[in-house]
Amino acid sequence: MSRAGEFILLPRSQPHSSTRSESDVQRLYVRDAEGNTLVDKSQLEKILLLNYMCNVEAEYQQGFHEMLLLFRLLAEKEHEIYWLFQFFLQKTENSCIMNIGVEKNLIMLRALIAFLDPVFAKHLEEKGQIVQSLFPWFCLFFQRVFRSFDDVWRLWEVFLTGLPCRNFQVIVAYTILQTVRDQIIKEDMSGDDILMLCNNIIDLDADELISKACTTYELFLKNNDKVPKEFQEFFSEP
Q1: Does residue 222 belong to any structural domain of this protein?
Q2: Containing domain of residue 195, as a range?
Q3: pLDDT digits over 21-44, tens only?
Q4: Which of 54, 56, 154, 167 is deepest in the core (most CB within 10 A)?
Q5: 43 shares its domain with 134
Q6: Does residue 3 form part of some domain?
Q7: Would you indicate the residue range of the signal peptide (predicted)?
């Protein structure tokens, strides 16, 4: 999986969206250790175009090509890959789409940090728009923080179950941020250094992350009586 690149949104009226998706797909590395081709790139291009045409609320988003590649490793037929992707978007309430769910995730993440770790929240606020700049985690649903495809899919399986709560992806993001919390505070990092540190988180273990995130959710539940009512619904049980 490529770690380079930025996330780009193009208006639906933009005629070059299909060209952009083709360019993204062509940059994918789709060979195994022996150099054998694993995936037909033209197939991914067609599925991306179909997704673009059928999801009227979503604009083209760079990064979908990497997500589709993972689904292609699970299924071969185009319609199976397409519906796997749609099922994932539905079950996660379109949380990886910039103009639909990502901003909501960032708002919830900022609120969760403020509630569970106000000292850290204050520190981050003093360094600029740190939380807002963590949007790539949600755009690819943490695909780049793991050491292997198996780890990515292990976390995604949890998201597909809907357990332990709605918007579990926000608690996962909070948990990842906690892994570098002490270093950020101890070294009094600048905003740029904090973002660089977060972007360099690449070798997490999925089972360990899931376990820690569930512990964080349990902590949230223990303090449920102190949480504003409008905030409680963000992490309600399914």
Answers
A1: yes
A2: 98-235
A3: 555 665 555 555 555 556 667 777
A4: 167
A5: no
A6: no
A7: none
Judged against a pLDDT cut of 70, whether residue 3 lies above it is answered with no
Those residues whose C-beta lies under 8 Å from the C-beta of residue 111, and which sit 6 or more positions away, are 231, 234
Distance, in Å, from the CA atom of 74 to the CA atom of 224, rounded to the nearest integer, reads 39
pLDDT single digits (tens) 153-166: 899 999 988 889 88
Query: To which residue do tokens 């299924």 refer?
Result: 75
Distance CA 120, CA 114 (A): 8
Give the up-direction half-sphere exposure of residue 238: CA atoms within 13 A in the CB hemisphere.
14
Could you give the 3-state DSSP secondary structure of residue 234? helix
Name the more confident of 6 and 233.
233
Our CA angle for 208, 170, 68, nearest 5°, is 80
Reported pTM? 0.79
Q: Of 44, 69, 91, which marks where a domain is finished?
A: 91
- CA separation, residue 198 to residues 30, 136, 154, 177, 210 (Å): 26, 10, 21, 7, 18
Same domain, 40 and 121: no
- Would you say the C-alpha torsion 72, 144, 213, 170 has a positive or negative sign? negative
Last residue of a domain, one of 91, 113, 137: 91
- Could you tell me the two tokens for 49? 């175009």
163 and 185 fall within a common domain: yes
Give the per-residue pLDDT at 9: 37
DSSP 98: I
46 CB-contact burial (10 Å; exposed 0-12 / middle 13-18 / buried 19+): middle
